[in-house]
Amino acid sequence: MEEDLGWGDVTTDSTISIDAKIKGFFISKEQGVVCGMEVCKRVFELLDSSIVFEILIKDGQKVQKGNVLAQISGNARSILKGERVALNLLQRMSGIATAANNYSEAVQDTGARVVDTRKTMPGLRILDKYAVQTGGCYNHRFNLSDLVLIKDNHIKAAGGITPAINAAKSKLTHALKIEVEVETLEQLDEAIEAGADIIMLDNMSLDLMKEAVQRVKGRALLEASGNVALEGERSVKHIAQTGVDIISVGALTHSVFAMDISLRFL
Amino acid sequence: MEEDLGWGDVTTDSTISIDAKIKGFFISKEQGVVCGMEVCKRVFELLDSSIVFEILIKDGQKVQKGNVLAQISGNARSILKGERVALNLLQRMSGIATAANNYSEAVQDTGARVVDTRKTMPGLRILDKYAVQTGGCYNHRFNLSDLVLIKDNHIKAAGGITPAINAAKSKLTHALKIEVEVETLEQLDEAIEAGADIIMLDNMSLDLMKEAVQRVKGRALLEASGNVALEGERSVKHIAQTGVDIISVGALTHSVFAMDISLRFL
Amino acid sequence: MEEDLGWGDVTTDSTISIDAKIKGFFISKEQGVVCGMEVCKRVFELLDSSIVFEILIKDGQKVQKGNVLAQISGNARSILKGERVALNLLQRMSGIATAANNYSEAVQDTGARVVDTRKTMPGLRILDKYAVQTGGCYNHRFNLSDLVLIKDNHIKAAGGITPAINAAKSKLTHALKIEVEVETLEQLDEAIEAGADIIMLDNMSLDLMKEAVQRVKGRALLEASGNVALEGERSVKHIAQTGVDIISVGALTHSVFAMDISLRFL
Amino acid sequence: MEEDLGWGDVTTDSTISIDAKIKGFFISKEQGVVCGMEVCKRVFELLDSSIVFEILIKDGQKVQKGNVLAQISGNARSILKGERVALNLLQRMSGIATAANNYSEAVQDTGARVVDTRKTMPGLRILDKYAVQTGGCYNHRFNLSDLVLIKDNHIKAAGGITPAINAAKSKLTHALKIEVEVETLEQLDEAIEAGADIIMLDNMSLDLMKEAVQRVKGRALLEASGNVALEGERSVKHIAQTGVDIISVGALTHSVFAMDISLRFL
Amino acid sequence: MEEDLGWGDVTTDSTISIDAKIKGFFISKEQGVVCGMEVCKRVFELLDSSIVFEILIKDGQKVQKGNVLAQISGNARSILKGERVALNLLQRMSGIATAANNYSEAVQDTGARVVDTRKTMPGLRILDKYAVQTGGCYNHRFNLSDLVLIKDNHIKAAGGITPAINAAKSKLTHALKIEVEVETLEQLDEAIEAGADIIMLDNMSLDLMKEAVQRVKGRALLEASGNVALEGERSVKHIAQTGVDIISVGALTHSVFAMDISLRFL
Amino acid sequence: MEEDLGWGDVTTDSTISIDAKIKGFFISKEQGVVCGMEVCKRVFELLDSSIVFEILIKDGQKVQKGNVLAQISGNARSILKGERVALNLLQRMSGIATAANNYSEAVQDTGARVVDTRKTMPGLRILDKYAVQTGGCYNHRFNLSDLVLIKDNHIKAAGGITPAINAAKSKLTHALKIEVEVETLEQLDEAIEAGADIIMLDNMSLDLMKEAVQRVKGRALLEASGNVALEGERSVKHIAQTGVDIISVGALTHSVFAMDISLRFL
Q1: Which of B32, C246, D118, E68 has CB 3.0 to 4.6 Å from B259, enough for a Cys bridge?
Q2: Which residues of E touch D142 (CB under 8 A)?
Q3: Cα(A102)–Cα(A118) distance, integer angstroms
Q4: Pick from B87-96, B166-175, C85-94: least confident
Q5: What does DSSP say about strands B261-265 and B21-28: parallel, antiparallel, or unpaired?
Q6: Residues A20, B157: C-beta atoms closer than 8 Å
Q7: Does F143 contact chain B (CB < 8 Å)?
């Protein structure tokens, strides 16, 4: 907020009288899943508690081009000052929710869940993750302290999958799950043997994934990762049909199309 | 940073010994314009001042798939902890710089400049604006206090373009420029008459823009805005050829494709 | 606030009962222009939202010795704790507004504006600048990012006035004005030629200023600076009568006489 | 610092090359007592640790017009960015130290000490108090928690001097002194009787002060307060000669003349 | 608070519906002196201003096992999120108040006061000191700036008790008291002679303390310190009976037994 | 740190010369497990980077009365200012580590682990948890976001153990474990059936715990909680011998005996 206001909004303060009132509408300019309405409302409340912001479409609802999402009225200066920050957040969060919704629908007849990753913008993670949920996908871990995720580099440094898992088990709280990233079926077997709770299949072919599902027989959760798309050969739907439990998609939060939403005044 | 580390990186702390060393390379996985190398270096320095981060490709240089951008070596725990944050910033900033470079090249034989807008992510504006410059475009104003930008809503509230400009001139410091957004040639004439320094042509057709350039004859800067694309009928190049001085493109910072860059360890 | 309270106001907490009520008046002890009443009210509100603070004289009004500026009532402990901070701010801001009013009145029959400078106390700039406006003067730029102000040292380093202006124009946003500080008429000519928006006449004699006004003929704003006083040979009035547009006075905010205002309890 | 830089110093960044070096001198433009050299050095160090700032005149030394106080050299951009903040602090602190020095010299043949008050600018108290010491005066309490100072309003609320002192003694730590403000000799007697450590004689005539000194006979410290000037009937010297121990002067920090000091580059 | 919530309370958010209501009681599980009720109320208010928290037992009252201290009702998610932080504070503060009460009662027929020390946990000092008062003891100084406390190490460095006291007197504000730590009666005599306000008898035997009281005859306050217990040979009561004014007990805040208090829901 | 220094250490600053040097030793006054040496070193480094702090006994080592833990030398003022904060942290952390060590040794021949709880002091959790590890025990979860812990109140609100677990599974990330608190064997069966990862046996008798171990047969981790002591009928050893996996002990961090450690100067 401060970042945007600097020393104040010189245009608004000089051209709009201090007690002018204004009324406006947030309107979708394309179809998508709305997300961020409460955050948007909060932005205006923080700026001026007398602003009335009425939410007409709740987070998670689908809208078409031209729907009225919310109605705002109150002091003109305050509303014009908050406009840009509110729209930026609303457009980004709705963009994420819309993408998440597409992925979610693609896997709906399978048992798989689509999850996000830690590839979020610094400072915005909690909002990004909320938008993912709103669109019907799930969150992976939030940060580096709520899951043990042993990747290639950890395995190298620890001297193998088994020693890495053993090290984690002997030093850490029993309350955390342990996930291991594997690239081959041999590594998969070793991880299962060593007691991993979740196994990430990194960039595996669809055939190998099917084989992995057969071998594991529910002894651990299987997560597919890498090069997941909405359409095509390696679509999220095809991956889901291999029988994996989880499919992680970094693009959900790191390549975001802002949804087009505008604020129109009467 | 804190956001990502939470209570610490449990995986790294349990599987990697406290004094293990590691060496790795930042590699581009697609072509583009690199941006954020210094920021990336700073992230690691803040985490552990003994990390050696050698920049091989400076901000602003074009790279192909497979180029080595930087080399990092030092304590394995520290490097693995900073990896995600550093990559997120580097990928976003390089994505913006690459897009800016495309726009910049499209107008290079005209006298026009492409500029960004305030449509940036909260908290990241200074980095986003830097990436725009790195790609060869220019920054518009930074915040609401460094330019008077009179838009439709201000004009309505002030009772017309002339009263709005007069109000700004009589109340504000002489050190700020005044920009007015217009939609018709009549408004353009009125803004020129009232002494605007910059005039924004909002969503005007190419023909109207040409006409505007004729009328103004250098008495103010003309800025084209709205629905600007890289290709097609209304491409940035076609707009530049109308003779306008400035073309503002919101998409530079609000619909960002992260450039694919990875960190590989030996 | 914290700075003043430390671990708490031991005197008030030990000698005044926790629910004692008190009523008092802010009274001017000398004539001047009042400024800071809203800030003062805010200080008490932050301390204790149940305090009733009624403003009787608004910011910008002139008062004589003995006028009642505001009435305060509420919890005695809270009021006594906020007293010192509130009075310090009110006395300083009213002191600045009073000085600004004197300067403003001195130029009122000319076309010139008196403006302040960046010579404010760290942390108080926004309040100081507001007090300047309240007294009838104008603000110059707020900080180093909202105007290009090329001074002697920049000119030396850039290799002359023309290269300095060209550098600024080619690298910076079109949205900022460019001001150049000159000491001679030759420099003035060069600055005009290079396209400066504002020209600061640094410590020039009255005669040279008149000559400068003739030469420029409205192509740029002229700002007089240096050794400006209320009275005497080089008074603000005499300078204004040379025809310059702007007169900047550092003393407005960097040598402040606190106006004598006290808080009297019934 | 941030307040002054905003989004960056656009003038310096566009006109000065990134690796230009500069060398300059801080010079006194009038006589006075220098204060703030270390703070000034720190400002530049925080901005750019490679700046070399050599202090030639230490805090507390008297200078004449034209003395060189310090020499600075290093990156031109960094130095120009810090210039204004450094000079504002140096000018204010030296102004305070100079005034404090005048007061201190006026009482030097008496046993009295001149002290400051809490009338400082918010955020700057620690620097203001340091400047007072540098000029040869003493500090009164720092904040509301390190001395019990019972004033008129506390006495009214507590039902008299004796009950107020008793309340403080029974509730507070033994480690704090108790000061009482009195206006008459009867109140003085009551305060002594009740065990006050320090007694403030508020706006008393010189004759009454002498009488007070006689009565108290060293059983408490006596502090004169109100309308103290450097010259005239009620000068600090005359007050000191009555035999009081302490003389508090609010003007030391609340009506400050900035000392004229400039930064000249080669 | 943040420390405890991390990214949110995943259990509560997933198992309790967003508008569920709950009602509960804070109940003492052992006898003691209650302290922290207002702080506890504030914790919940900050979390959710619609929570109703009714205090039934005020800070400072003694309770038995099974007493209901407070009643809370409101949104179930909010209450469950604040539970742990509120209980931790309430249990610690009541533990301190209970210990303070035991010490206070032990000296109640003597003229001595029991005081705490600076041995508090970082960040919690103001709450710890408040709990000490609530239990009937007194606070010593709050921090290093509100009392001159000359200890063994200062004496060594300054070259003796007299030079140390003289240094403090000549450099510091008159508003602070001076306390000196002594180990022998010779040191005691020197401290009295040099004008100490308070003298700390460090680890002296009961007999030496009695002797010290005789010698000082009220010219300074005497403080006993070191190895004070509730019971036994060197009990606080025996020490108080020697006639010293102050007894400082570090254990009050640095070895705390949390009082057992629970929150039971209907 | 700030909390302790207030406006500065008036004693040290007035009695110790600004360049005096000092050397001292940290000495244990009783036996225990040392913890906090690195934190202690960091406190002094932050205060004055020229202080030399040599750790002689590392965190986790057992010491006897009279052992020298560390040696410190450097500027006397800086060392004396940091003394209290450093000792408070060292004493508390060593107290916790010593207690943790006693618990850890008591269960060493069983397969059980002793873990802490969230009952830590606000602001100190990360240090408290580290001290627990240092003494040989384990950490339970860090905060409310890294484990689903379904307690009595959640079960009531969700309508039973099964619906509560199902709600958590359907809404939350797959990356978190689910723990349920049970009081009877029937609840235990239900929790196992519903797929809990960890089951907390709340205040169960030793016989019931043995029975629980039999029934669960390794399908979930079992955690004993409530009224755990070092000695007696319900000692941590007896509980461990029932075969449970985890024993949680709140007293580890919420009723802390500071270990007696002092700083002696030469």
Answers
A1: B32
A2: 145
A3: 20
A4: B166-175
A5: antiparallel
A6: yes
A7: yes
pTM for the model? 0.76
pLDDT of E209 > 60? The answer is: yes
pLDDT, average across residues E2-17: 68
Q: For residue E78, give both structure tokens.
A: 């909010």
User: Is C95 in the same domain as C158?
Assistant: no
Mean pLDDT over all residues of chain D? 89
**Is E150 in the same domain as E203?**
yes
Torsion of the alpha carbons at A53, A57, A61 and A64, rounded to the nearest 10: -120
CB distance D137 to D163 below 8 Å: no
Assigned domain for A171 exists: yes
Alpha-carbon torsion, ordered F142, F144, F147, F152, to 10 deg? 120
- What are the chain A neighbours of C146 within 8 Å (beta carbons)? 6-7
Instruction: For chain C, positions 148-177, list CB contacts with chain B under 8 A.
Output: 172-177
Q: Which residue of chain F is at minimal alpha-carbon distance from A179?
A: F175
| Residue count of chain F | 266
pLDDT, tens digit, 9 for 90 and up, residues C152-180: 878 887 889 999 999 888 877 788 899 99
Instruction: Please enumerate in sequence order all residues whose Cβ is within 8 A of that of A109, keeping only pairs 6 or more positions apart, or say none.
Output: none
Same domain, F84 and F51: yes
Domain span including residue B76: 2-102+257-265
Identify whether B119 is a catalytic site residue.
Answer: yes
Percentage of chain F modeled with pLDDT above 90: 57
Residues E78-130 pLDDT 10s:
898 888 889 989 999 999 999 999 999 999 989 899 999 866 666 677 788 89
Q: What percent of chain B has pLDDT over 90?
A: 57
* Type of residue at E197: D
Domain identity same for B21 and B79: yes
Side chain identity at residue A123, one-letter code? G
Residue E181: strand pairing partners:
E200
Identify all chain C residues contacting A6, using CB atoms and an 8 Å cutoff: 142, 146
Q: Are D150 and D161 in contact (CB under 8 A)?
A: yes
Chains that touch D (3 or more CB pairs under 8 A): A, B, C, E, F
Q: How far is A92 from chain E (nearest CA, A)?
A: 21
Cβ of C205: how many Cβ atoms within 10 Å?
A: 11
Give me the interface pTM, i.e. the ipTM.
Answer: 0.74
Q: Is residue E120 part of a domain?
A: no
What is the H or E stretch that residue D261 is in?
Answer: strand D261-265
What is the enclosing helix (H) or strand (E) of C155? helix C152-158
Amino acid identity for residue B30 in this structure? E
Q: Note the helical H segments in chain F.
A: 2-5, 10-15, 37-47, 76-106, 125-134, 152-158, 161-171, 185-194, 206-216, 236-240, 251-254
Rg of chain D in Å (alpha carbons): 23
The owner of tokens 């008393």 is D204
Q: Give the whole-angstrom CA distance, residue A160 versus residue D209.
A: 88
Pick the more confident residue, C127 or E215.
E215
Q: Which residues does residue C224 pair with via DSSP β-bridges, in sequence order?
A: C201, C247
Distance CA F247, CA C172 (A): 65
Q: Do C79 and C164 belong to one domain?
A: no
Q: Is there a single domain that holds both residue B95 and residue B179?
A: no
Q: Does any domain span residue E61?
A: yes
Chain centroid to CA B43: 21
